[in-house]
Design goal:
mainly alpha, Cytochrome p450, two-stranded antiparallel ribbon
Length: 236
């Protein structure tokens, strides 16, 4: 079955037999996603939006071996335990004080800090810093909502340069807020390396090692680093 959505033809896989054709026999031909216009420069270095080409495979392999590999997760088990203890202590303290617990905020903050410790060896916020943690949560929520909302630019590509709904401009501002945080972490780490500070052996160190190699300079430029960090943070 096919649908005509604006100027875009969409094929709907509506039977098990056709699903097998698309997902098993011809999966490589249909693996590329249609990239929303609103993603802008972010899609150029994002594993989530890149087509299944050598660059995508290299970035995906690097994430699998350096961030989600079993040995890496086992080595950081103590971080997960520490963050759970902090969450339990925070909730217990609020209970003793008779204060309400914003479950969504504290769960988001714990997940965000667990991920940021894995990537940067530092917390991006804290359970007690309500303003900053809510700011991160609002930015991430706004990005997800903007990416998931219908955009006339995707249905009528000829109108995309006009950005009639302003979605691309709105997302660019949201991405810029996250990128400012990521750039500060990267720049601080580079200055620390120049000053001879000891390695932290986290995901950022692994990425900078790859970027410093001759064959990694084109793979991991600053925009790609931002996209990699953004994909991981908004997955919280």
């Amino acid at each position: 079955m096919s649908l005509r959505l604006g100027a875009v033809t969409t094929v709907v896989v509506s039977s098990p037999a056709m699903a097998r054709e698309f997902l098993q026999r011809h999966d490589s031909a249909f693996a590329a996603r249609s990239v929303p216009d609103a993603t802008g420069e972010h899609a150029a270095g994002s594993v989530a939006w890149l087509p299944p080409a050598p660059r995508w495979r290299a970035l995906r392999k690097m994430m699998a071996t350096e961030l989600f590999a079993p040995h890496r997760l086992d080595a950081l088990r103590h971080l997960r335990s520490e963050k759970v203890r902090e969450l339990v202590d925070h909730v217990a303290r609020l209970a003793r004080e008779g204060a309400p617990v914003n479950v969504g905020r504290v769960a988001f903050t714990t997940s965000l800090n667990l991920l940021s410790r894995t990537i940067f060896s530092a917390d991006l916020t804290s359970l007690d810093d309500r303003g900053r943690s809510e700011e991160f949560q609002q930015v991430v929520t706004a990005i997800m909502q903007a990416l998931g909302s219908p955009n006339v630019s995707d249905f009528f590509p000829l109108l995309a340069p006009a950005d009639l709904q302003g979605t691309r401009r709105r997302l660019a501002r949201l991405f810029a807020r996250l990128h400012a945080v990521f750039d500060a972490e990267v720049d601080g780490r580079l200055r620390g390396r120049d000053a001879g500070q000891p390695r932290k052996n986290d995901f950022l160190d692994a990425l900078l090692d790859v970027a410093a190699r001759e064959d990694g300079k084109d793979l991991l430029d600053r925009q790609t680093l931002r996209s990699l960090f953004t994909v991981n943070i908004i997955s919280v």
